């Protein structure tokens, strides 16, 4: 059995650490060895070394579902030799590597030029925003090189862990002004469950309260008025998108022409940019916004999904040519994005993983299990999120001492009419009786309490999610998280989460069986998950974003101490 290596504070292992076979998403959701994993022992933050499960637990997991193929669920075990905690697995399974090195960095922007020239080209269609289908391509090695993860800026804060205190600095005269531009129509409010506003709020809230200048968030007029208080909102009138615009724009992009529909929709977001102090404009999920940013600011594309799937390399070069950096929320997404970029832009890709609020997502006071093992799924009711997979897994178990709570709706609206997929889920749930509860979408302000009631959180995604916030939130709540080994999820789960093959109810059932039968194992994994989350909170993520701002602006982003 191979001994685990102690991880560094940033989640990476020492250089030269031994490597197990790498798995990557393959056709039909199966995992296949990746022959191209870096031979030098380098690793992405959160890339675990996995040993084998103890014989008794391994046997239980294999026997849980007799009709299933050989099980490959990844289950962490207890402390290893020398007191170093180590993860273990049912069978040989490996998660993707994360971090390689590049020598060249993002383009350093020159801030403060008066006036500036407005770009004449725009990019992708806004319809790709938050669409799980954009990340289906999985991940792979790009051109023999990988994007570099941003190193954290030196920090010394006065606040606590979780959301604030980690990104304060000493000795800096000023902070680079930053403006976050949300996708048009998105809400900067805890009433929504959308990932991008959650990420922006987490990054901004991680700054000390006395930070000057405060970050700005560009958000459309008419969106939810009860906004996050972590940043100053900048309103604008929302331009109505025409239904045919996204298709016309995609065709125009293929022909090497501007995408006028997207430009018309996005232009109002930057109406006031000449009044802003020269700084960094972060375009969230909007590559087409980059050429519209005046040259007095540095423009950064902040990618939460694969945005360039309809782009040729030529169009990507034209649209993102003046991007000072291209930030991706995971190494998996960075690989996918780099595959669509011309060679000259690939060295501008940086990885800034999301964090989690460890002051709001906390373990419940009494972790003891009740009469039933409480399994929780939180997410949108769409096939890509895999709620039906966990329903099938619970049905396979056939145990009365396991109950499932499914929280979510097709969109972020509890009152919306159910989709055909939701109706199918309800029919499946009805056949399981009181072992399943279906609850509608719950606002983010209330969802932490839902996690605290769970014994196990499942994230059975079918699609290659670039970054699953639900994994981090479950881990921060101190319970085991079982998630699909696809996309950026293995990076998020680190060396603490339980990984299973996507779209495999049998393997998920085996993992649930093992956890249901072993309370000590559940507690060990829950403790490990909480520890992982505490070292990957929003202050940690903020430090990595500040490192990017330092690179692109040439000015320290740390505030006055």
From TrEMBL:
Residues 277-360 form the Glycosyltransferase subfamily 4-like N-terminal domain. Residues 368-530 form the Glycosyl transferase family domain. Keywords: Glycosyltransferase, Transferase. Residues 37-50, 115-124 have a biased composition (Basic and acidic residues). Residues 157-169 have a biased composition (Gly residues). Residues 53-77, 144-156 have a biased composition (Low complexity). Residues 1-77, 96-173 are annotated as: Disordered. It holds the Pfam family Glyco_transf_4. One of its GO terms (molecular function) is glycosyltransferase activity. SUPFAM superfamilies: UDP-Glycosyltransferase/glycogen phosphorylase. It comes from the Bacteria. Coiled coil: none annotated. GO terms for biological process: lipopolysaccharide biosynthetic process. InterPro entries: Glyco_trans_1, Glyco_trans_4-like_N. The keyword tRNA-binding does not apply. This is Glycosyltransferase family 4 protein. It comes from Cellulomonas hominis.
